Amino acid sequence: MVRFLTRRVLVGVVTLIAISIIVFGLFFAVPSSPAKVMCGKNCDAASIAQVETRLGLREPIVTQYTKFMKGIFVGRTYADGTAFERRCDAPCLGYSFRNDEAVTTILSRTVPVTISIVIGAAILWLLIGVSLGMVSALRRGTLFDKLAIGISLTGASMQVFFFGLILLFLLVYTTGLLPFPSYTPFTENPAKWAQGLILPWVTLGFLNSAIYARLSRAQMLETLSEDFVRTARAKGLPLRRVYTKHALRAAITPIVTIAGLDIGASLGGTFITETIFGLRGLGKETVEAVGFLNLPIVVATVLLAAVFIVVANLIVDVLYAVIDPRVRLS
């Protein structure tokens, strides 16, 4: 078990290093003048030279990357030899001169919003979707199964911007049952935090639960037809034990894989959901940074999204070891 986890952690670290090299190279090595991109069309030669000096773009690309990685662990100082000087404390992911603040400061405001949205929605779509799909498979052909299929088809056919606007119209503007979505830090007021995120949770949770319901149903039906399930039944084991201990554990493995990827990708940014409900999270911040050509923020968010994916896959590997004994023995 320890060897298995150690291998996965090492693979994750190597993957992140490779991604950081590729991302850094794409944004700072490929463009002919990253400073001109960040400075804008109306910048003169003196302004571009100043930006290049402040960002260290006149140094070799290897030196730039080394300083970038070093800044993550010990921080760094941006200066151009004049009175200008900005300190970026560790973990330093760059400095946004357009916003005049460290990228980590910007991320500290936006990442908690996105994490709050995704974690709450993920709990809903996993509980509702997987439960609905499993029960539907066990009651195949019944009225419950047909209703579950109909609901999942309806949810899978909708888009976030459409369903979210409907919920806003019905629950906020028409009936006033819920306040307009907002973000309050969990540590300040947990009740207000949850109340302000109910609509984003329900929107993402319902739409994704529809997909997981269909996936869980198909996987459970396939597992129920396997030889080991028929053997367990033939031995006279109670159906509840056959379904929960044998069939469910085998059917849920691929669902865990997809859930890990979905959650990791969603943590990288839920731009549409944040825009609909007026929440300034990582997705909205990233899209605006792309529009303003704010490369330090774009680089940092791409790397952060990669970290979310790698960590999610690591958690999935750990869950594999818990669910499937064969993984612990491999």
From TrEMBL:
<protein>
    <submittedName>
        <fullName>ABC transporter permease</fullName>
    </submittedName>
</protein>
<keyword id="KW-0472">Membrane</keyword>
<feature type="transmembrane region" description="Helical">
    <location>
        <begin position="113"/>
        <end position="135"/>
    </location>
</feature>
<dbReference type="InterPro" id="IPR045621">
    <property type="entry name" value="BPD_transp_1_N"/>
</dbReference>
<feature type="transmembrane region" description="Helical">
    <location>
        <begin position="193"/>
        <end position="213"/>
    </location>
</feature>
<keyword id="KW-1003">Cell membrane</keyword>
<dbReference type="Pfam" id="PF19300">
    <property type="entry name" value="BPD_transp_1_N"/>
</dbReference>
<feature type="transmembrane region" description="Helical">
    <location>
        <begin position="292"/>
        <end position="323"/>
    </location>
</feature>
<feature type="transmembrane region" description="Helical">
    <location>
        <begin position="147"/>
        <end position="173"/>
    </location>
</feature>
<comment type="similarity">
    <text>Belongs to the binding-protein-dependent transport system permease family.</text>
</comment>
<keyword id="KW-1133">Transmembrane helix</keyword>
<dbReference type="InterPro" id="IPR000515">
    <property type="entry name" value="MetI-like"/>
</dbReference>
<feature type="domain" description="ABC transmembrane type-1">
    <location>
        <begin position="111"/>
        <end position="320"/>
    </location>
</feature>
<dbReference type="Pfam" id="PF00528">
    <property type="entry name" value="BPD_transp_1"/>
</dbReference>
<keyword id="KW-0813">Transport</keyword>
<feature type="transmembrane region" description="Helical">
    <location>
        <begin position="9"/>
        <end position="30"/>
    </location>
</feature>
<keyword id="KW-0812">Transmembrane</keyword>
<dbReference type="InterPro" id="IPR035906">
    <property type="entry name" value="MetI-like_sf"/>
</dbReference>
<feature type="transmembrane region" description="Helical">
    <location>
        <begin position="250"/>
        <end position="272"/>
    </location>
</feature>
